[in-house]
Structures are given as C-alpha cells and as structure tokens.
C-alpha cells in the first residue's frame, strides 16, 4: 500500500515518534511524504521515503494529485488545528479528495494508530478493489 505522511510544523516531532513506533509496519509499504516531514522521518527511522515538495511549496497539492489518480491508499495528516496555515485551501482540498475517493484518513494520533494497526491486520485490503 502507498501511505502519505504529512505533518504541520507543530506536529513534526509527533510524526517522527509515530514513525519510530510503527517503523516495522511502515517498512512493509511505500511511504510518501511532504518534503520536510519526509526528511525528518528518514533521519529517525531509516525508512525509504519518497518526498514531494514541502507542504507550503505545493507538497500537499502533489499529494492531492496522487489521491485523484488513485495512487495513495492511506493518508496520515497530523494537523495543527490551533494554528491555521496560509495554504489551508490545499489541505481542505486534500481532505475533500480523500472523502471523494474513499481514502482512509487520520488527522490526529489516535486515528493514525487505529489505521496503522488496521493496515497491519489487513483490514484495509478493500483498497485493492478501487485500483485500476
């Protein structure tokens, strides 16, 4: 499965810790991330991460395009709800596309853990039905 990982600045350390904790599961899948988040994940996990641009430079738009073309199976987007970003439109578009294309999406740690454990159990294999 192809997993997209995105984290606002205030959540980057949390994303690193999440990836350390679930490195065994993540390592079995293709990992994509916005630029800075991807670099930080690679530094602490040694996972191979395919990196897009930084989120504010168009990385979230690049993830959205991948979602539109059914090239992403799961999105973990650790958002900072207290500090809206200037590129909030890109984030909203990506969330909308996840809903439209039935892409499992987590926007907080609790849901991210549920999804990653479900992925490991095979509960998300339904995504194969949606692929061309």
Report the portion of residues in β strands: 15-25%
Calculate the terminal CA-CA distance, rounded to whole Å.
14 Å
Within CATH, the superfamily carries the name Methylglyoxal synthase-like domain
- Shape designation: globular
Q: What string gives the helices and strands in order?
A: EHHEHEHEHEHH
CATH first level: Alpha Beta
Kindly give the count of domains. Answer: 1
In percent, how helical is the residue content? 40-55%
CATH architecture: 3-Layer(aba) Sandwich
Poorly predicted ranges (pLDDT <50, ≥5 residues)?
Answer: none
- Structure annotation, total helices: 7
Q: Overall mean pLDDT score?
A: 91
The major pleated sheet works out as: 5 strands, parallel
CATH topology label: Rossmann fold
β-strand number: 5
Enumerate the strands of the largest sheet in spatial order, edge to edge or round the barrel: 3-2-1-4-5
Radius of gyration over C-alpha positions, nearest whole angstrom: 13 Å
Overall structural class, as computed from helix and strand content, comes to alpha/beta
Description:
The chain is of the alpha/beta class. The chain has one domain: 3-Layer(aba) Sandwich (Rossmann fold), CATH 3.40.50.1380. The chain has helices spanning 12-21, 23-26, 35-45, 59-68, 88-100, 109-121, 127-130; strands at 2-7, 30-33, 49-51, 74-78, 105-106. The chain has a five-stranded parallel beta sheet, with helices on both faces. Helix 3 links the parallel strand 2 (30-33) and strand 3 (49-51). Helix 1 (12-21) crosses helix 3 and helix 4 (59-68) runs parallel beside helix 5 (88-100).
């Amino acid at each position: 499965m192809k997993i997209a990982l995105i984290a606002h600045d205030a959540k980057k350390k949390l994303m690193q810790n999440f990836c350390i904790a679930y490195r065994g599961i993540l390592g079995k899948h293709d990992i994509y991330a916005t630029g800075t988040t991807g670099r930080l994940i690679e530094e602490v996990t040694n996972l191979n991460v395919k990196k897009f641009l930084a989120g504010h430079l168009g990385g979230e738009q690049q993830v959205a395009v991948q979602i539109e073309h059914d090239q992403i199976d799961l999105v973990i987007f650790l958002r900072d709800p207290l500090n809206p970003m200037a590129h909030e439109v890109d984030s909203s578009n990506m969330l909308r596309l996840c809903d439209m294309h039935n892409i499992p999406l987590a926007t907080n740690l609790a849901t991210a853990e549920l999804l990653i454990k479900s992925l490991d159990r095979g509960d998300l294999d339904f995504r194969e039905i949606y692929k061309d």
